[in-house]
Specification:
Blueprint lengths: L1 H4 L3 H22 L5 H7 L4 H28 L2 H21 L3 H28 L6 H8 L2 H19 L2 H21 L21 H5 L2 H30 L6 H26 L2 H20 L3 H29 L5 H53 L4 H8 L12
Helix pairs in contact: 2-8, 2-9, 3-4, 4-5, 4-6, 4-15, 5-6, 5-9, 6-15, 7-12, 7-14, 8-9, 8-12, 11-14, 11-15, 12-14, 13-14, 13-15, 14-15, 15-16
Length: about 400
C-alpha cells in the first residue's frame, strides 16, 4: 500500500491500532447476526417480536447520532470511538441476563449506540488522516475491517451456539468488545477539530435539518436508507428463512461468504474511485443489491443462498465505503461528524424500519415475498441515485456512470 508509506510513523501506528479496534468491534457485533434471531425464537418470540427487538438496534443508532456527530466535531473523534466500543463491551451481558422482550428491546436500543460511535469516530479519524488526492484508496483499505470482522464473527457465533450454547456466545461477544475498547484508548487523534476549513463558512450557520435539506446530503441519505432497509431484513430474517425452507446451510456461512465478497471488492475499488469518481461504483453496488434480493427471492438451494450472499457482499463493499468517501468529498473537514451522522443515519433509519415493518410483511407474504418487496425497493434506490445524485438530471446521469465530476464536491 503505497499511500500508507507516505504517512508519518505516528499516523501509521494510529491507523494500524484503529484498524484492529474496528476489526475486533465488528467481530463482536456480527457474532449475533446469525444467532440473535434464533435466540429470540428459542425464548418464545413471534416473528413480529423478533422484528421489533432487532429493529430497536437502529433506534439507538438514530437517536445517538444526533449527539455523537456534533460531539465528534466539537470535542473529539476518539471520545466518540470510545463511547461506541464501551457499549459493545457492556450490551451483550444484557441479552444474557434479561429475558423479557420489552427489556430486550431496551438492551437492543442501547447496543445500537455502539455502531453510531464506531462509524462516526472511525470514519472521521480515517478521513482526517487521509491525503485528499488518495482519499478513496486509504478509506477503501481502512474499510476492510468490517468485512473481515463479519467473516470472523458469524462463524464464531454459529460455532459457539452449536457447541456450547448461548451463554458463551454473549460472553465472547462482550470480550471482543472489551478488546476493541482497549485498542481505541491507544489511538492517536490528530488535532484537526479546531482547524477551520476555507470552504466551511457556507455551512457554519446551518443546522442538522438544513444540511439534510440539501440534495448533496439528502439523496445519499435516502439511498442509504433503502440499502439499510434491505440489509435489515436480511440480517433479521435470513436465518429464519433458511430454517423455514429446510435449506441445508448454516446461516453463519451466509454472512462469512458475504463478508469475503465485500472484502475482495473493496481492495480494488478504493484506488479506482480516485481516478474514475465515486458515482459509477455506487451505481454498481446498487445493482448488486438488486441482484442479491432477486436471488434470495427465488432461492431453493444452499448454492443460491450463497450466490445471494456474494451479490449482497459486493453491494456492501461498493456502496458503504464509496458513500463515506462521497460525503467526505462534499463536506468541510470540521463538520465531518455531522455530515456522516446524517448520511449514515439514513442507513440506520432503514435498519430501524426493517425489523417491525418487514415482520408484518413476512406474516402476510412469507419470507420469499418479503425479499421480492426488497427487490422493488432496490430498483427505487438505483433510479434515485442515477437521476438525482447531482445538481440536475444530465450531471446526475454522467456522474452515476463515471462520465462526469461530482458538482457538490468541496475537494476534487
Amino acid at each position: 500500500m503505497k499511500v500508507f508509506r507516505t504517512l508519518d510513523p505516528q499516523q501509521q501506528r494510529s491507523l494500524i491500532i484503529l484498524f484492529l479496534a474496528g476489526l475486533l468491534f465488528w467481530s463482536s457485533i456480527t457474532t449475533l447476526l446469525p444467532t440473535l434471531p434464533l435466540y429470540l425464537d428459542h425464548i418464545g418470540g413471534t416473528k413480529q417480536q423478533i422484528g421489533f427487538v432487532m429493529g430497536c438496534f437502529a433506534v439507538g443508532l438514530l437517536l445517538s447520532r444526533f449527539v455523537l456527530g456534533p460531539l465528534a466535531d466539537t470535542k473529539s473523534r476518539k471520545l466518540v470511538l470510545i463511547v461506541g466500543t464501551s457499549v459493545a463491551a457492556i450490551a451483550p451481558l444484557g441479552y444474557l441476563l434479561l429475558k423479557s422482550f420489552p427489556l430486550l428491546m431496551l438492551v437492543r436500543v442501547f447496543h445500537g449506540i455502539s455502531i453510531a460511535g464506531i462509524t462516526i469516530g472511525y470514519s472521521a479519524l480515517v478521513a482526517d488522516l487521509s491525503p485528499p488526492n488518495r482519499r478513496g484508496e486509504l478509506i477503501g483499505y481502512m474499510s476492510l475491517s468490517p468485512p473481515i470482522g463479519m467473516a470472523i464473527g458469524p462463524t464464531i457465533g454459529s460455532f459457539l451456539v452449536a457447541s456450547t450454547g448461548y451463554v458463551p456466545l454473549f460472553m465472547v461477544c462482550s470480550t471482543l468488545g472489551s478488546m476493541s475498547l482497549f485498542c481505541s484508548c491507544l489511538v492517536w487523534e490528530p488535532h484537526t477539530i479546531a482547524e477551520k476549513n476555507s470552504h466551511s463558512h457556507q455551512f457554519e450557520q446551518q443546522k442538522f435539518w438544513q444540511i439534510l435539506g440539501s440534495r448533496r446530503v439528502l439523496v445519499p441519505a435516502f439511498v442509504m436508507s433503502i440499502v439499510g432497509l434491505i440489509f435489515g431484513t436480511t440480517i433479521t430474517f435470513l436465518p429464519l428463512y433458511i430454517q423455514e425452507n429446510n435449506i441445508a446451510l448454516n446461516a453463519g456461512l451466509f454472512y462469512t461468504v458475504r463478508a469475503i465478497a465485500s472484502f475482495i471488492i473493496r481492495i480494488f475499488t478504493g484506488r479506482a474511485s480516485d481516478r474514475f469518481g465515486r458515482g459509477v461504483f455506487i451505481s454498481g453496488g446498487l445493482v448488486f443489491n438488486l441482484l442479491g434480493m432477486l436471488t434470495l427471492w427465488t432461492a431453493n438451494t444452499s448454492n443460491m443462498v450463497l450466490l445471494g450472499a456474494i451479490f449482497g457482499g459486493s453491494s456492501a463493499g461498493l456502496v458503504l465505503p464509496m458513500m463515506i468517501t462521497l460525503i467526505t468529498d462534499r463536506c468541510p473537514s470540521d463538520q465531518r461528524g455531522k455530515f456522516f451522522s446524517l448520511c449514515i443515519g439514513g442507513f440506520d433509519l432503514g435498519l430501524a424500519i426493517a425489523g417491525p415493518t418487514f415482520g408484518l410483511v413476512a406474516e402476510q407474504l412469507g419470507y420469499r415475498g418479503m425479499f421480492a418487496v426488497d427487490a422493488c425497493l432496490a430498483c427505487i434506490g438505483i433510479a434515485t441515485f442515477i437521476t438525482l445524485s447531482n445538481k440536475d438530471l444530465p450531471h446526475s446521469i454522467r456522474f452515476a456512470f463515471g462520465r462526469g465530476q461530482d458538482t457538490y464536491a468541496v475537494y476534487r
